[in-house]
Amino acid sequence: MSDKDMRLIWVVPQVNSCPFDGAGVFIFLLEEMVICLMVGGGVLVKLQNYLMRGMNIMENKNSKKRILTGDRPTGKLHIGHYLGSLQNRVALQEEYDTLIIIADVQALTTNFDKPEKLKENVMNVALDNLASGLNPEKATMFVQSMIPEIAELTVYYSMLVTVNSLRHNPTVKTEMKQYGYNDISYGFLGYPVSQAADVTFCRAHLIPVGDDQLPHLELARKIVRRFNELYKPVLVEPQPLLGSVPRLVGLDGNAKMGKSLNNCIYLSDGSETVKQKLFSALTDTNRTKISIPGDPEICTVYQYQRAFNQDEAENIGQMCRAAAIGCTACKGCLYEKMESILTPIRERRAYYEARTEIVYEMLHSGNQRTRRIAAETMQDIRKAMSIDYFYNKGLMKDNNMKVKSYIGI
Ligand code: ATP
Ligand code: MG
Sign of torsion, CA 109 115 121 122? Predict the structure, then answer.
């Protein structure tokens, strides 16, 4: 039976006019037959659960391992994202069941005062993922705020994490300085906990990221171990996968190119913009004349040579040290290399920009599929924590209650 053969058409739990309390109508399509069941509340819940698990298994029928990664919709994606994470997402999308989160709730931690910007940037981030080669037929892309289970899981996890460990998180500390925060919101301090929920709610195995995310993943792994030991082993410990360049420097020489830092070459920048940005990028400031030997190690452009022009970078570095190549020639050859990578990305972006309904459909079906995955995990989580008493009749049984109906999920 293929995943197309069995489709849930309609579930109407708690039909009021039904002669049985808490009963519902359960209709589904099985190999072209419409099957309609009128069942009592408990049976309905069980059937729903089995079917949901069935659908999840069928959707992931080759038992592929799962990838979860994504971006904050705080702007367009840049070449740092490409080297840090996007390249791996695209390369592994066949081998892994690939889930891409557009982390709009996390974007609010630093943009809570301009939520109206999210809409535009959700589309930008989705377009940039597709432009980089993500296949809408293969990968699942979804929007964080559409999966309320992630918020629920964040609350449960927050009991397992100390405030001090969050205060000492190196990425949180760097970002506090970057944003000029003296004090921080509860949401900002706790965003690594929410991120732990992002990567574990779907039991992802592999997380392709840049190296700023490593402390967050370490925390996620600790939470998983703690949860599994304390309650029941229902969570998967995620492994990070660093990109070919785990942290690309910014055009201004900042240790990190970042959307919120205004020091980026965007994947969507036009050819002329890329040229202009590259040619005004920071080099070795001591090299005021072409006859003065340069030091590639303190040159931003040389870091880009290493990232985009691996074959020639070594040779160019030696020539720079020997004053045998000038900055203009060095930048010119890098520009050619970058253009060969960026041109197909720009073309794919233009294709999807002209067909945004494909993007919308991908996000819409991605949200639906992801909610099914999340609901299944949350059942196991609640059960492991023994907080499923309202759903499994536990409260009724323990208190010897005879109630007419109970609500299930
Ligand atoms: P913001 O400044 O708004 O936080 P960002 O540029 O840091 O934006 P994110 O959406 O936070 O981007 O990160 C998405 C992914 O891209 C993460 O895996 C992150 O590690 C990776 N990434 C971001 N910037 C770089 C970079 N300069 N080099 C390599 N990887 C990066
Ligand atoms: Mg970031």
Answer: positive
